[in-house]
Design brief:
The structure is a single chain. By secondary structure, this protein is of the alpha/beta class. It has 2 domains: 449 residues, TIM Barrel (Alpha-Beta Barrel), CATH 3.20.20.480; 32 residues, no CATH class. Helices cover 45% and strands 14% of the residues. The protein is built from 17 helices and 20 strands. Strands 1-7-19-18-16-14-12-11-10 form a 9-stranded mixed β-sheet. A 4-stranded mixed β-sheet has the order 3-4-2-13. Helix 1 crosses helix 8, helix 4 crosses helix 5 and helix 11 crosses helix 16. The longest helix is centred in the middle third of the chain and has 22 residues. The two termini are 44 Å apart.
Amino acid sequence: MSLKGISRKIKPFQILRDEQVEAIHRATLEVLEVTGVRIENKRALKIFKDAGCQVNDDNMRVRIPGALVEECLRKCPSAFHLSARDPKNDLTIGGNVTYFCPMPGMEIVDLDTWKSRPPTLKEYGETVRVLDALDNLHLFTVYTPYFNLQGIPPVMYMPEGVASRIRNSSKALFTGYQQDCEVFTIEMAKAVGIEIMGMSLASSPLTYYRDAIESIFRFAEAGFPIVVGSGTIVGGTGPATIAGSIITYNAEVIPAVVLAQLVKPSNRVLVSGTARIMNMRTGNPAHGAIGVSLHDVAFSQIWRKYEIPTYGVAVESSSKQIDFQCGYEKAISALFGALSGINIVQLHGGIHGELTFHPVQAVLDDDIAGMIGRFMEGIEVNEDTMATDLINEVGPIPGFYLSKEHTRRWWKKEQFVPKFADRSNYSEWTKKGKKTALDYAKEKVEEILASHQPIPLSADEDKDIEKILKKARKYYKEKELIEETI
């Protein structure tokens, strides 16, 4: 059994012609074979060399033959299973199914002043509980919901965050890597009998640092899936053209795919396609730019050709508040990404880039996800839905359909009714106190925190998690990454 995602029953949106897809593919192979990538990991350099790549040990440059790239792409599963703490929340990632997940934010934002601050560990857990209760949020990705915590040493943000997500949700999850933290998060996952998907990110342009490669080894050896991605900034760390940055991006993520298959053939891989557009006036990322959607849609189309599951879509906004700009920038990005066939879309909770997050925004985003899902289900056309006999029966005025059994049977299937939008008429709205969607979302967060309790860990599982956290703290103290006074 697995958590129901959104099944796309319409053709995926495409932006490239077939010959353009092929041209980008060939150009990517050329970059990998002629220029290659820098891999700062001796073990990986040997594996690439043994596989027939041209390796320069002095500058750590790896040039990968096109035939090896295509062979490794073919070895990747086109879909795979990811187990969660509650089996009903297991996922099957790939194919025509899209799942939604949170967009990370560094800090929590005050809804009155719009100033941000690090959340407490208690607020972190409460936010995870809210996300656990949302119908259209299917899993937790790395750094979500926050990646800055009051009173917690920075080196412990990742282990503490994973522990809180395990304790406060039974949905599937990703984790990241830094300072060997994946050693402890893998151990946590095994302690509670789940799989946790790891990450490996290229540093744009065309570089992998040691820790990103070690993450591939550790998750592959644990038998867990791996997310590979990059952080190309169009016009900054990649060319200013969308086509050029897609080539750079693909040339950055493919070496990790190749390595994952060389380490363990048929290893489950999910490819992230998150790029940003540079604001050329300021040098900052232009969060919410339509160019991000252009990149996402083209990326999705290319990786559908490779038949490898995809994750991405930076559903971000440049707005600092929950407002009109935040709504339209996020909705447009999420819609295009989902329609393009990306399997996992980051949406819920993020406000300003990856800087701020709030559970109230996540509640509002859940309606966006629901609306997108209804659109992707398309239109069912059969004898019953065409309703020809009923149309003939009702006829012209004064005929009407409200009282018909067909209407009672079909309207809930055909319509998506948002939970937090105001759809009352003006007089009803006035009588109810002129509440906005934001007001309703705030009330929902309070309701969830008062009533929703995820499936708890057993006492032994909770003790195991605490032991692993204690082990991590000891490890980092010995490495002098945590001060004794903390």
